Amino acid sequence: MEQLVFQLQAPLSSWGEPAVGEYRGTSDVPSQSALIGLLGSALGLEREDEAAHAALRDGYGWAVAQLDGGSLLRDYQTAQVPPRSALKGRPHATRRHELSVPKDDLGTILSTRDYRQNAVNLVALQPRSTTSAPYALAALADALRRPRFVLYLGRKACAPGAPLWPQLIEADTAWDAFGNYRARFDAARQAAAKRSGTALLEALPPVGKVTFDDHVAAGLPCDLTTRRKDRLIRRRGWQFGDRNEHIALLSEKGSVAASEA
After folding, report:
1. pTM of the predicted model, to two decimals?
2. Coil, helix or strand at residue 206
3. Lower CB count within 10 Å: N or C terminus of the chain?
């Protein structure tokens, strides 16, 4: 089975969780909705194209290998916003429109937002079937190498810290594909070191855990299944539903835990 594997590394990333009030948290692994948005940006999909985003959601199975969860960064923010009454009869499609009201009408809201610092993840995509997948994996890989829109990891402030380096890999399971990707990465790293005389790339950390959905041949035993509200329903309306997320926990050396082996 052909799979598409790519890496996500960044100084800052943020994978949104359900938010109530002024607090905006983050998961320690990428959400399915964020990965769909990442691919949509690479392909040049407009946010209003609901059908195209739904096709990405339903066309592939998703697995994520967490190599380094990073550390938590909590950012305290303030922002000026007008009340609804001040916007009545005024255009307010942009931030500039919002701030065009009289200064006396502006209020201040407080917000706390979480980020992950220096996190490293690998993502594997498996087509559900040749008929349901809207794009060939090779086309998705090309889009990630030459994206149409700017890519970011969760929020617009979170630019990738390294190329995504997408690779097409033949493997029976996501776990095998991750291992193959790591071997290719190490070979590329050694080749670059020979050319330059010094190691330009850091080695990938060992895998700590793997999360996967119902439509993936994971190749790992499931230690825990949770419900996660990151199934995209309407991209434009920011509506999300629940899905099953299966979690496989690994030892510190990146192998299946001894109790499950």
Report:
1. 0.86
2. coil
3. C
